[in-house]
Amino acid sequence: MVAAGILFSRIGGLVRNRVFAHYFGTSDAADAFNAAFRIPNLLQNLFGEGVLSASFIPVYAGLRARGEDAEASRLAGALAALLGMVVSVLVLLGVLLTPVLIDLIAPGFEGEKRLATIRLVRILFPGAGLLVLSAWCLGILNSHRRFFLPYAAPVLWNLAIIGALVGFGAGVAPYPLAEIAAWGSVAGSLLQFAVQLPAVLGLLGRITPGPIMVSGPVRAVLRNFGPVFVGRGVVQISAYVDTLLASLLPTGAVAGLAYAQVIYTLPVSLFGMSVAAAELPAMSSATGDEGERAGYLRQRLAGGLRQIAFFVVPSAVAFVALGDVIVGALYQSGEFTRPMTLYVWGILAGSALGLLPSTLGRLYASTYYALHDTRTPFRFALIRVALTIGLGYLFAIRLPPVLGLDPRWGVAGLTLSGGLAGWVELVLLRSALGRRLGRSELPGTFLAIVWLVALAAAVLAWALRWALPELHPIAAAALVLGAYAGVYLAGTRLLGVAEAARVLGR
């Protein structure tokens, strides 16, 4: 159900980006909008889904597992009040300090491009605050095993932006149109929160924070919140450094990175976040002595790792071998031309290196959170971020001139650096958890099968691609990617992979 909700949401996001690409391409206005969106989005990322899931769900689900439903409801109300106060102050500060934030995140922007980015950030900030409250709804609903609604709710946010672009796109200059899209984003944020609120109130009943503000459960959430908040913060610093470095590259680098990230995050969300999100409340509800809990967590972790890898390995191979087919189908329209497709493909191929560790790492982190350990993932996140920043500067700024490459291709170095750092973090997470719970990792035979079948399927899909006549990018993608997926599923099923049998059975 998580994956189904995310799939609807991501399809909406891909349609939104295709419409955005049609009107903006890789123009200065596209760079301004994508850079502007990152700044208020910091609120959502720092206080939103990942942080609340790690700090709130283990405590809330534990209370419910012990039958303390009234205490759990009061905890939810207290957290809503705290979030509302903190986020309101941060939104106000963000609007007032926008020019300073622009200088920090996009120092390469000048003139009209910089002024437009400032206007866009000030429009977008209140919407980001609403998305934080939407993430609170998600935490409540997930703890009650209501998965589809909170993950499908962003469809409304995407539809609001699409409606704004389509409704006003004809004859409007790029910068004013970007502002219209920003207002659409704010309206969509309100819709995303409002559609979840009735279900949350129905589960919680009357919310009465009162003295719960200083209770043990609230203190437990805040203790968990600190390390995850800081860890999420340093990860966001890494993302903002990527945007900063991209802003120093030629026009189109920031937009190209954003287009590639939308595609890259699709398998991360569908196959990494969905499994991790579904497992967290289940793991957090584990009871028994230490040995029984460890065995239960190992069992769930092993199954989740296989489920993630079965889908992520072919996704990574497709990004490298068939990335232009994917990008062309999603974006190639209007101002987004074939050379832009090839450019985004190069960025996407670089991101494939880190796809598997990024998705597996989410499940390992959820296991730590279920154990009420937020500090270990935080320490390893610091290491990953430090590596990402250092390698990103080397690969994006220093190496392209040495290798004789066009400077704009430095943005592909950013995605490569993130992938290398992701592998280091995964090794650290796995090793530390193995010492605590016992080894739980992917079997070598299983990995060999899925990698070899994915590579064979890519060769066949590549041959089909060159044998086809000239087709519309969407039609070509339907045939080529459909064949690729079909060969992969059939091959893994014939070789006895249980995950393939389950998928085909459904």
Number of strands: 0
Q: What is the number of domains? A: 2
Helix content bin:
over 70%
N-to-C span: 13 Å
Overview of this structure, please?
This protein has helices at 2-24, 28-47, 49-55, 57-65, 69-96, 98-105, 111-143, 148-152, 154-168, 174-204, 216-247, 253-284, 290-321, 323-331, 338-351, 355-370, 375-403, 410-437, 444-467, 473-494, 498-505. The protein is an all-alpha fold. The chain folds into two domains: 2-442, no CATH class; 443-506, no CATH class. Helix 5 (69-96) packs antiparallel against helix 7. The protein is globular. The mean pLDDT is 85.
Q: Brief description of this entry?
A:
By secondary structure, the chain is mainly α. The mean pLDDT is 85.
Question: What is the strand and helix layout of this fold?
Answer:
Layout lengths: L1 H23 L3 H20 L1 H7 L1 H9 L3 H28 L1 H8 L5 H33 L4 H5 L1 H15 L5 H31 L11 H32 L5 H32 L5 H32 L1 H9 L6 H14 L3 H16 L4 H29 L6 H28 L6 H24 L5 H22 L3 H8 L1
Helix pairs in contact: 1-9, 1-12, 2-3, 2-7, 2-10, 2-11, 2-12, 3-11, 4-5, 4-12, 5-7, 7-10, 9-10, 11-17, 12-13, 12-15, 12-16, 13-15, 13-16, 13-19, 14-15, 14-20, 15-18, 16-18, 17-18, 19-20, 20-21
List the main descriptive attributes of the protein structure presented here.
506 residues; 2 domains
